[in-house]
Amino acid sequence: MADKMPAAKLPAKIIDGIMAVRETGETNMFDINSVLVIADRLKLYDLFVWLYDERENQRQYMQGIRNGFEPDDSNAEKE
Hints:
mainly alpha; two-stranded parallel sheet; single chain
């Protein structure tokens, strides 16, 4: 049996934004474009910029949707 992929480690404020979009129930969370539209409407600008800017961030986001999210604020003091 294959091992489960690890949860995506993201800053807590990004996970909070993802959960806020999810709680609206307005989109399939695999639809990144719709997630961006909802994040913008909800004024979740940290999530919007994070998800829009980097292909690697989109890869981590999709990993998290499949395998869960885990807070990782080891870089929080650098922001």
